[in-house]
Amino acid sequence: MCFPSNLGEHLSIDETSFSNGELYTIVTNKDGHGKKGSLIAMIKGTKSDDVCRWLLRKLPVGKRRKVKTITLDMSGSMSRIAKKCFPLAKQIIDRFHVQKEFKDALQDLRIQYRWQAMEAENKEIRKCKKERTEFKAEIFSNGDTRKQLLARSRYLLFKNPDKWSVSQRQRAEILFEQYDDIKQFYYLSLRLGQIYSCNSKKDEARVNMALWFNDVEEWEYRLSRFFVVIIFCPREVLLTSHYEKRLFEHAS
């Protein structure tokens, strides 16, 4: 599916999955704001070579070279497609994709601890059964067991502290007391969001980002998914993408 007439100066490229599980690469015109005339191309698959071959054949070179910006996620595949098919466009990493990576990595850490808690509880249950004693799970002050604490903390980790309910605040205090690395990870994620959200100048944001990176690099915990973000998105890229996007939005 391709609509060359919908090409504009500011594009977005992303992948999506439909109900049958098939992955598609979607190219849209950002100026269309998701309305009629926004869709430029929908290609089955996400392999960069296949998608590039299809786009280069279907979209006129003159129009492709007029594209100024292309917003994408942190996928290497999407970046290669953008570079080859829209060579003059500045690539903009959407801040929401960056923050989503951190939130997802934080949830990975919580789930990892939950599995550990479940395994430890099952081991203790088997031990008590063997010794013919009663199993008594550890109960925290809010009534949660360790397993429940980790399961029920999912949604509070997506929120800012000022959005927590009373029970979520109590649960967060217990969670952070028990798992310091979850606490550190959570507040690092909040700080990154604050750097993006504040209306400071780029130079000021650069200092804040540098301080944030220093804290990340000094942090002893190494979560692979978390540090993939750091390796492939240096601080200047994270900042430049965000401020370039603001510039183009204000100019349009």
Structural write-up:
This protein has helices spanning 48-58, 61-64, 76-85, 95-131, 146-152, 166-178, 180-197, 202-218, 224-232, 235-251, and strands at 10-17, 23-29, 39-44, 69-72, 90-93. With 252 residues, it is α/β, with parallel strands linked by helices. Strands 3-2-1-4-5 form a 5-stranded mixed sheet. The model is unreliable at 246-252 (pLDDT under 50).
Q: What radius of gyration results from the CA coordinates?
A: 23 Å
Distance between the termini: 28 Å
Strand content: 5-15%
Low-confidence stretches: 246-252
Mean pLDDT: 82
Write out the strand line-up for the largest beta sheet, numbering strands in chain order.
Answer: 3-2-1-4-5
What's the overall geometry? elongated
> How helical, in percent, are the residues?
55-70%
**Main beta sheet strand tally, sense and closure:** 5 strands, mixed
Number of DSSP E strands: 5
Oligomer: single chain
Order of helices and strands: EEEHHEHEHHHHHHH
Number of H/I helices: 10
Class inferred from helices and paired strands:
alpha/beta
